[in-house]
Amino acid sequence: MIRSLLLALSLVACSGGEDSDINDDTAADADTDADTDTDTDTDTDTDTDTDTDTDTDTDTDGPDTGDTDEPDTGDTNEPDTGAEPDTGAEPDTGDGPDTGACDAADLVFAAETWDSTSTAVTTFGYGEEVTLAGVIYNPCATDVAFTTPDTCLLTTAEVVDARGAGMGTAFACAAVVTTWTVPAGGSIHEAINFGALNPATYTAGIGFNIRRTSATSTFTVTR
Q: What is the pLDDT of residue 32?
């Protein structure tokens, strides 16, 4: 079989050699068929699908570490450093005038015994004259006015010793309604001279011509 194929090929080769003088005009024709098929198919499909699903669920429960209460450190109050030292009572600076609205009910009534200089005293020497004064004080910061049914500020004045013996005086008044004004922080008064009294301890009494107000005090005449 192989031998037969070789023989056939030899024959074909010989046959081709005999025709070589034939001028084949088309053999030199160049292949002018240009391939103009240009593939412009550009694949612009870009997959921009991005998975933005982010799981933000974070379990913040930490492990159970037991009771988180702070340990009891005891009483957090400041330590007791002892009572503040007593620096003594504040000095009494006196009652200042009342700055609120006042009326006759705020007035202060007093029965005072005065010496010859009109100074209030409670002890007299033998032979000194005693003057009994009914005084109305106004502790307020505003003037206070009131009226009496007549012209007298006082209705009675008396001095009585420890045995009940004493002397008194009455006042003659005109029946004219009278207005009295006590200045802010000041006073008004009416005084009666009882002269020299025997040595003893006395009670002085004054009756004021306003709301049946009265006042008393004690004084002593020495030997």
A: 47
